[in-house]
Hints:
Layout: H1 13-29, H2 38-48, H3 54-66, H4 73-112, H5 117-142, H6 149-164, H7 170-181
Amino acid sequence: MSPAFFGTHGLGTADLLQLMGHFALLSLLAVGGAITSASDMQRYLVGERGWIDALQFNASVAIAQAAPGPNILFVALLGWSVAGPLGLLATMVGIMGPSSVLTFLIGRYGRTRQEARGVRAFNIGLAPLTIGLLLATGWVLAQPSRGHWGAMALVPVTIVFMLRTSRSPLWMIALGALVGALGFA
Length: 185
């Protein structure tokens, strides 16, 4: 492999450590999965640091979500887009390390005390937190489409479709692809 393959796209060691540190902090906030912290990832990578643009960010999320495998693949693609293989390593170690250790420790504690009032309250409190984080992610991912009426019209249509039918969400994905192909989004 060529030396360029291992390049960092202009990022130095300090930048890579900051990237890993930021994703490590996000790993502790990613209740409901890494996608719930995508809004802050976008703020940091696109808005604050300017390492990638909004289209690269959205493409990384879309490609990873469409690919088979774990949902966290988008973090690897973001790291790759920012700094190649070293960026991928920095983001994945950051997002997986702290949350994995914390989950292991809390899981052991919670299993032995699952009827305790504090443990039950903690579990109940996670639901609204996860919903709020997912809404923030949806808001950020929809920003590039806000000027396109066709894309924005799909939001309420999709919500109604998913609430009122038991059909596969693939139908709405197909409808979104059709709307985009026709130039309405």
